[in-house]
Write a structure and sequence with these properties.
- The chain is mainly α and 531 residues long.
- It has 21 helices and 4 strands.
- It has helices spanning 16-22, 30-41, 45-67, 77-85, 92-104, 106-123, 129-132, 153-169, 173-201, 229-246, 262-297, 300-303, 308-314, 320-355, 372-386, 391-419, 431-451, 459-468, 470-481, 488-493, 510-530; strands at 134-139, 148-152, 215-218, 221-224.
- The strands form 2 sheets. Strands 1-2 form a two-stranded antiparallel sheet. Strands 3-4 form a two-stranded antiparallel sheet.
- Strand 1 (134-139) and strand 2 form a beta hairpin.
- The longest helix is centred in the middle third of the chain and has 36 residues, at 262-297.
């Protein structure tokens, strides 16, 4: 007999406008890697962001269609895509879910770490003992050079911020959406204002975009490079890491089981969120580059993200008081991103626990409809990540998983079309956009192979190893806990609306060929640039 999962139902509490506010933390993700991309790619960094966010917008239409096939499921497109792959592989389905979670959950650690750095930067001088104090717990140099686990002021302050975000989300998605709306006004508007003022003042200088070439290193010095193999590699590395931020508004579809009207609300939420992100991810990097210029971007504080707040304040010649207020506003924008990630990633874990992919305890939700056990799991995992000394490496490994998820789910769009042609869809993606999304799946696979190791030797390998960790979790849940039988409701969910039985696999060998093509595209990117 099939096993069942005991849990409360999610509450249908929100409409599309409220979910847009929940997803409003995504534009703030530009703060996570804008400095690192600018310090690596140079003047073309704004073009990296523009191309990447347009990729993300094109892909979102595929996500919108497959999410509409499962109006009762939460957890985002990884959950909806997994139902396409489950007919072809029991491992690929949980891999999609796991990779999506590993992509989203580090936002908590990286965001709180950067937020703590912002606060420390405005209240303490660079040489202060509180900034240099730390206790090293473990040397992780075998994973990445210089990587350690440590306890310092950033960790302690970041942990406090993380707990505040957890407390807010404990009361469910409606309360989260209400608080997110206030945070959006208090944080993102100042961020946009900081970018608009330099434009109006004429501080965005065309000379800061010249020479329009990637950076290079000569005799130990960073100099303008060329559009040669090395320059293209850095540009690919920029496109690779930017995807972690620019594609992320697909989190809008994480709330299918909490929308009041899923068919109406879901496509509106993801499209409006995408348009907001296009504006943010084009304007902010352009102004950042145009005002500060390449030389300023090479400042270590900008490269690691900790000095972004002070750099943005300098763009409007802010005095000490305004600088502190601005940095506090940027901290709120990071909290916005953290809450967006905590809401989305915990629901991915929750649905995985309900559907038999991940440990059963994750399937529980409290009486507010919040997946609290999944949230506690998120919290504990991110306290470990918060203790790591190199957040950009954590982000890069996380993004390896994100592009794995991205590949599987963009291909899930056409697999669902072939296997479930007659199933009614609340929103149907135009055929040309579905095809474009499939092409971009292979572009992203290529960027994974080419760009991952730009952010540290061993990043690509670490990404694949972290993705493979889902295998023992799934095997234990499926064969030990559930005795080899999926929960009954998960099997029912495979039979979509309008169908009475699970139909034949019309896609045949095509999913396996698609998977082989993705592996080949990744290997091609790696071989071209690293062999």
């Amino acid at each position: 007999m099939a096993t069942t999962t005991t849990s409360h139902e999610m509450v249908r509490d929100v409409n599309w406008t409220q979910v847009v506010f929940v997803a409003a933390g995504v534009p703030a993700l530009v703060l996570f890697s804008m400095g690192g991309i600018s310090a690596t790619v140079g003047a073309p960094a704004w073009l990296v962001w523009t191309i990447s966010v347009l990729f993300g917008f094109a892909q979102s239409f595929t996500y919108a269609e497959i999410a509409g096939l499962h109006p009762s499921k939460t957890g985002g497109t990884a959950v909806h895509g997994a139902t396409a792959w489950i007919r072809y592989s029991q491992i690929l389905a949980p891999l999609s879910l796991w990779s999506n979670w590993l992509a989203w959950t580090p936002v908590l650690a990286i965001g709180t770490g950067l937020g703590a750095g912002y606060l420390l930067s405005i209240f303490f001088e660079p040489g202060s003992s509180i900034l240099s104090w730390q206790v090293t717990l473990l040397d992780l140099g075998f994973v990445s050079e210089g990587l350690t686990l440590r306890i310092n002021a950033t960790f302690l302050l970041g942990a406090a911020i993380m707990l505040v975000c957890f407390a807010i989300q404990h009361r469910g998605i409606l309360r989260t959406a209400q608080i997110q709306a206030l945070l959006t006004i208090a944080s993102l508007l100042p961020l946009f204002i900081v970018c608009i003022i330099p434009l109006l003042q004429g501080k965005v200088l065309m000379s800061n975009f010249e020479p329009f070439t990637p950076l290079a290193t000569q005799d130990g010095q960073v100099v303008p490079g060329a559009w040669d193999k090395g320059g293209i590699l850095l540009f690919c590395g920029g496109l690779f890491i930017a995807a972690w931020s620019t594609y992320a508004f697909e989190t809008s579809v994480c709330y299918m089981s909490e929308f009041k009207n899923p068919g109406r609300d879901m496509p509106r939420a993801i499209i409006v969120s995408g348009l907001i992100c296009i504006v943010a991810y084009i304007i902010i990097p352009v102004v950042f580059q145009g005002v500060l210029g390449t030389q300023k971007m090479l400042d270590p504080g900008i490269a690691d993200g900790s000095g972004i707040g002070l750099a943005l304040a300098s763009m409007i010649d802010a005095g000490p008081i305004i600088t502190k207020l601005l940095v506090l506003a940027l901290l709120l924008s990071l909290i916005l991103a953290i809450m967006t990630a905590m809401a989305g990633s915990s629901r991915t874990l929750n649905q995985g626990g309900q559907d038999g992919w991940l440990p059963r305890y994750l399937g529980y939700v409290n009486h507010h409809g919040a997946p609290t056990r999944a949230m506690w799991t998120d919290l504990a995992f991110n306290l470990v990540l918060l203790a790591m000394s190199n957040y950009l490496f954590v982000l890069a490994v996380s993004n390896c998983n994100y592009l794995i998820f991205n590949f599987l789910n963009l291909n899930a769009g056409w697999i669902h079309r072939l296997d479930n042609p007659r199933v009614p869809r609340p929103w149907r993606c135009p055929n040309w956009l579905l095809a474009l999304g499939t092409i971009l799946a292979y572009v992203n696979a290529f960027l994974l192979g080419a760009g991952a190791n730009v952010w540290g030797k061993g990043t690509l390998l670490a990404g694949f190893i972290s993705a493979a960790l889902v295998i023992p979790f799934f095997l234990y849940r499926h064969y030990v806990t559930d005795k080899g039988v999926f929960p009954a409701h998960m099997q029912r969910d495979l039979i979509l609306r309008g169908e009475t039985t699970l139909g034949p696999k019309h896609a045949g060998m095509l999913p396996y060929l698609a998977l082989a093509g993705g592996i080949a595209a990744c290997l091609l990117g790696y071989v071209i640039f690293w062999r």
